[in-house]
Write a sequence for this structure.
């Protein structure tokens, strides 16, 4: 399998993208900011297509748009709530704009390039070039290091923002820095599994990890490990089953792991209830 | 050959309706706009726009899967959205201990649903075109049968809404008082989610699954900015949805760009104008309220 260049590139980029997504995603779930990732994926889609429509580089548009998006959302601060109607209508318009750029792009060039939109929406990790794979790995490593460097204050300010602020932590600056981290991570994840599926790496593995353990650093490490495992398993399965797209398999593996943990938790919960129920009735019988 | 608009409005309308597919698009669009305007008004009042967002994403594998097995994508959309609505209703009844886990769980399910849609679409021969028409809407996809199906769905949903409209509005504005007065709040919530699922599916057949907010949320939210009165608000919401749909379809016919772009842009513009109107009115009121 690893004798193929495209597999090597996919694993190189995929591994670092997955680590970054697992680490940043842990805080996305911890801070209840899933909608930020959702919003950023819309922005990423339109940014990347605007860049290719203008004849530029998709990755530049991708990261430019997500970083701009993080600064806007950071500036809005607490006023940007996920279920807000204004935000929903605005992001629907941004997606519509993406559809416009896509048509601009496909009509200005030969019609064979309609696949560009599909690539950005659903990813194409097997199509990544060696140079791009190294860039994606480098950016992924940098974002992961930044997240780890901020991990301690981020955990503190996420769990209890008021106490953290009272202790002199710059909560607002941390929030803004975290927005930029999420923006860059979304840009990374879009290259692997696409704008529409980023929750599969950025939300599902962190959620599974937090269901398994309540200890912050253990959950952080577990989240990155689950994300990398989903990526590796998805890529390997896609190599074995060439008709099935890799982004589907990566998301499916992550989702299956989540389901296993939920079902196992439910069974264990019922069993524990039964055991304690039996113990209580025995105690009642003994008295 | 790209059709060109003239300054003669009547000739333009004639040109718009010259082709059968455009007649179907306008007929289907009109039915969907009325339906979305009414259901959207209650969606915004009840604060359930996130449910509309979630339902629309679940619609994508429905439409793509139906295309894959050779069925009508509209039927796939309707079936998946209705089942998903019942699923949301079942989950919403249970108390959640942890809000952020619930949000993340919904996000995970949505990612998997979209991935499944992508899988179905990629197994289908007309891959790229299918994906884009399902996600961003299309002018030419609406057949005579689909117009009929849309009409039946809309008639059924509007009949239900007429029957439950008053208690539903009461239950949406003040659930506690409504349930104390004997209104069956839980049952109404389930019925409304089902209605919403059908409306999302119908709306997605025009705007595409990613852009349903353009018809389902933007006109209703704009109407609520302009008037607090429910009856007038519903009428206004329908009128705005019709305007967005008709204008969007007409502009899209005379241009090479996708209908989804025009419909979302018009919806967004209508919403912004409504907010500006409200802001301006508030400003005028403040000015007159403090004369000296």
């Amino acid at each position: 399998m690893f004798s193929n260049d495209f597999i090597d590139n996919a694993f190189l980029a995929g591994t670092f993208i997955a680590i970054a997504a697992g680490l940043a995603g842990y805080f996305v779930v911890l801070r209840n900011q899933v909608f930020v990732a959702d919003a950023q994926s819309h922005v990423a889609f339109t940014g990347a297509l605007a860049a290719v429509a203008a004849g530029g580089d998709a990755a530049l548009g991708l990261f430019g748009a997500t970083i701009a998006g993080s600064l806007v959302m950071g500036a809005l601060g607490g006023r940007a709530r996920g279920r807000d109607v204004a935000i929903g209508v605005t992001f629907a318009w941004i997606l519509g704009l993406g559809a416009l750029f896509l048509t601009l792009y496909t009509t200005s060039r030969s019609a064979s390039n309609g696949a560009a939109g599909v690539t950005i929406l659903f990813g194409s990790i097997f199509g990544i070039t060696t140079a791009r794979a190294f860039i994606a790995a480098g950016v992924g490593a940098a974002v992961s290091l930044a997240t780890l460097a901020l991990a301690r204050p981020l955990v503190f300010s996420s769990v209890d923002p008021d106490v953290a602020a009272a202790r002199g932590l710059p909560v607002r600056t941390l929030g803004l820095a975290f927005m930029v981290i999420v923006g860059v991570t979304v840009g990374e994840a879009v290259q692997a599994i696409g704008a529409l599926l980023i929750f599969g790496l950025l939300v599902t593995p962190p959620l599974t990890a937090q269901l398994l353990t309540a200890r912050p650093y253990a959950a952080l490490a577990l989240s990155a490990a689950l994300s990398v495992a989903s990526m590796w398993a998805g890529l390997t399965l896609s190599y074995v089953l060439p008709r099935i797209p890799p982004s589907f398999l990566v998301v499916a593996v992550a989702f299956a792991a989540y389901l296993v943990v939920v079902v196992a938790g439910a069974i264990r919960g019922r069993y524990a209830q039964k055991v304690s129920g039996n113990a209580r009735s025995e105690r009642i019988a003994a008295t | 050959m790209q059709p060109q608009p003239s300054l003669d409005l009547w000739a333009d309308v004639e040109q718009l309706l010259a082709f059968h597919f455009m007649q179907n698009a306008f007929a289907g669009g009109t039915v969907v706009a009325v339906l979305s305007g009414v259901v959207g008004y209650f969606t915004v009042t009840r604060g359930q726009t996130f449910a509309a967002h979630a339902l629309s994403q679940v619609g994508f594998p429905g439409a793509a899967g139906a295309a894959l097995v050779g069925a009508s994508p509209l039927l796939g959309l309707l079936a998946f959205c209705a089942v998903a609505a019942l699923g949301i209703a079942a989950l919403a009844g249970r108390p959640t201990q942890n809000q952020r886990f619930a949000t993340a769980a919904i996000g995970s399910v949505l990612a998997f649903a979209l991935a499944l849609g992508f899988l179905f679409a990629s197994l289908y021969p007309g891959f790229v075109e299918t994906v884009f028409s399902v996600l961003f809407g299309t002018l030419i996809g609406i057949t005579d049968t689909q117009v009929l199906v849309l009409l039946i769905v809309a008639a059924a949903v509007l009949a239900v809404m007429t029957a439950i409209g008053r208690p539903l509005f009461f239950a949406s504005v003040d659930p506690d008082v409504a349930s104390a007065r004997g209104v069956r709040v839980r049952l109404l919530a389930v019925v409304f989610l089902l209605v919403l699922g059908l409306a999302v599916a119908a709306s997605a057949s025009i705007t595409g699954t990613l852009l349903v907010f353009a018809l389902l949320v933007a006109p209703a939210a704009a109407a609520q900015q302009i008037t607090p009165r429910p009856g007038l608000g519903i009428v206004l919401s329908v009128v705005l949805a019709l305007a967005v749909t008709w204008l969007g379809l007409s502009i899209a016919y005379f241009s090479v760009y996708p209908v989804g772009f025009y419909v979302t842009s018009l919806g967004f513009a209508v919403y912004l104008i409504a907010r500006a109107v409200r802001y301006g009115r508030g400003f005028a009121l403040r000015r007159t309220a403090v004369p000296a």
Summary: Chain B touches chain A through 53 residues (CB under 8 Å). Residues 16 and 39 of chain B are 28 Å apart (CA to CA).
